[in-house]
């Protein structure tokens, strides 16, 4: 009998390499959606016959749906099956891509981008599927690779989008994303086995609605505060209202028998500190994509900008994402040898070194590439460690929800970085030829802010306890669990 290439003779399950490749590919597709329209942002008002303020919702809505759907889809995955929910999310990307590909006005474009943003939940679901299907001795490397796709797809998407938007009709971007989502659906359907289901658990619909409303309020205030005004009524209303809803939601979750997010697990020291560190690391991750393109594309006549094209800017940003993926196996080895806590600390130290270097080197194009490489290495190590730290502290039945919450924390950090760094860059400006441009001091202040956030992340990571090498669910030593999973 011929051997099925997807099946292991030893274990009787699909080969880990195929599963990892399929899930990582889908992770790249989903993260690519986050930066798909970034090169188009200046042209969107003209392309869709709308104002700049209205066009900004095309970016904002993706952030909102991604942040809201990620923890909700994680909990659904724990209950009805992670593979099934991952297929639904990829289907949402396909639907959103088709809507955007046919759009000529603002409303269908916003709806399409909302569906595309929902796909971000595939990444934490994929990490949890790996825990269910990959032998323990190979799990660290697979998780590191999957986690890195969150940054790799976003970094690689910018130059690809720039090339397509410069040489083809802009709708081609969305036909491309539709094609990629079809490939992702086929890969998950064929390669990834069904994951465990916990149908005895009830989905907390009220908790999901409360989380969606509370998060939407806070993220709207953060992402639109610069446009509305930080002291304007809509900004204050969204932020205060969001906080109040989340406080009430937390009280309800604590008392619920089947909560959307088990706060008793979430406040465990290792889980809580890892999530807090994720916010600061997310801030460090997104500062570079906000600052570097502005520095690269500003006219050289300003005395600060490097005068590069949108395509060159995208190519300069790409190494950050590629290095994240290249570092994933190295990070996995470090995590196996010294523990995920040490891997996280090493990553944060490298991020801090990168932003410290940026304070000194910002006058040549290669300077931005060098700084991006430091940040890419650091993020690669940090993102590889965080899911492992989470999974060491939560039951198997809650891995998808816990990883979804951790991804949400990263998203909160990136959202905060976008808002804070944008304000900083807009405050210290000089007028050249009738246009305002950020000064050297403004750029250095932005880099220093990201460095401070990294130091905060380092302090938090240092406080994370060193975990015992035992399986969370059964108390079985990790080495024993490895042998059990391969028999």
Automatic annotation (TrEMBL):
PANTHER family found in the cross-reference section: MAJOR FACILITATOR SUPERFAMILY MULTIDRUG TRANSPORTER MFSC
Q: Name one GO cellular component term.
A: plasma membrane
Mark the transmembrane ranges: 21-42, 54-73, 85-104, 110-130, 142-164, 170-191, 203-222, 228-252, 272-291, 311-331, 343-362, 368-386, 407-425, 445-464
What the entry lists under CDD domains is as follows: MFS_MMR_MDR_like
Q: Which Pfam families match?
A: MFS_1 (PF07690)
Q: What is this protein called?
A: Putative major facilitator superfamily transporter
What is a GO molecular function of this protein?
transmembrane transporter activity
What membrane topology does the UniProt entry give? Multi-pass membrane protein
- What keywords appear on the UniProt entry? Membrane, Transmembrane, Transmembrane helix, Transport
């Amino acid at each position: 009998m011929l051997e099925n290439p997807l099946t292991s003779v030893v274990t009787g399950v699909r080969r880990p390499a195929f599963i990892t490749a399929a899930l990582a590919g889908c992770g790249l597709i989903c993260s690519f959606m986050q930066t798909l329209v970034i090169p188009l942002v200046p042209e969107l008002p003209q392309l869709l016959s709308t104002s700049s303020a209205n066009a900004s919702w095309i970016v904002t809505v993706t952030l909102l749906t991604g942040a809201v759907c990620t923890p909700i889809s994680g909990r659904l995955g724990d209950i009805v099956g992670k593979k099934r929910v991952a297929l639904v999310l990829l289907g949402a990307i396909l639907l959103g891509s088709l809507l955007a590909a046919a759009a000529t006005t603002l409303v269908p474009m916003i709806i399409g981008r909302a569906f595309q943003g929902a796909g971000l939940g595939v990444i934490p679901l994929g990490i949890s599927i790996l825990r269910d299907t990959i032998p323990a001795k190979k799990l660290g490397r697979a998780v590191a690779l999957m986690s890195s796709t969150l940054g790799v797809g976003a970094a690689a998407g910018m130059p690809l989008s720039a090339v397509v938007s410069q040489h083809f009709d802009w709708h081609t971007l969305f036909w491309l994303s539709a094609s990629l989502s079809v490939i992702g659906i086929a890969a998950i359907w064929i390669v990834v086995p069904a994951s465990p289901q916990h149908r005895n658990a009830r989905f907390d619909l009220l908790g999901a609605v409360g989380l969606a409303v509370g998060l939407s309020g806070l993220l709207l205030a953060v992402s639109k505060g610069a446009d509305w005004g930080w002291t304007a009524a809509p900004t204050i209303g969204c932020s205060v209202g969001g906080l109040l809803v989340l406080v009430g939601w937390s009280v309800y979750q604590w008392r619920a028998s089947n909560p959307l997010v088990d706060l008793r697990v979430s406040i465990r020291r290792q889980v809580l500190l890892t999530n807090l560190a994720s916010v600061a690391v997310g801030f460090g991750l997104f500062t570079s994509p906000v600052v570097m393109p502005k520095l690269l594309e500003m006219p050289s006549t300003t005395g600060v900008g490097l005068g590069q094209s949108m395509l060159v800017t995208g190519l300069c940003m790409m190494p950050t994402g590629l290095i994240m993926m290249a570092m994933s196996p190295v990070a996995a080895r470090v995590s196996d040898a010294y523990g995920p806590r040490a891997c996280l600390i090493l990553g944060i130290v490298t991020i801090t070194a990168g932003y410290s270097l940026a304070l000194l080197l910002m006058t040549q194009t290669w300077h931005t590439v060098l700084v991006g490489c430091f940040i890419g290495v650091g993020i690669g190590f940090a993102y590889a460690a965080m899911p492992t730290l989470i999974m060491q502290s939560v039951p198997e039945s809650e891995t998808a929800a816990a990883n979804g919450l951790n991804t949400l924390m990263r998203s909160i950090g990136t959202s905060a970085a976008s808002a804070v760094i944008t304000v900083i860059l807009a405050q210290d400006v000089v007028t050249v030829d009738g246009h305002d441009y950020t000064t050297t001091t403004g750029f250095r202040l932005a880099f220093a802010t990201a460095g401070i956030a990294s130091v905060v992340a380092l302090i938090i990571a240092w406080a994370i306890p060193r975990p015992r090498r035992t399986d969370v669910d059964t108390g079985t030593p990790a080495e024993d669990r490895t042998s059990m999973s391969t028999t």
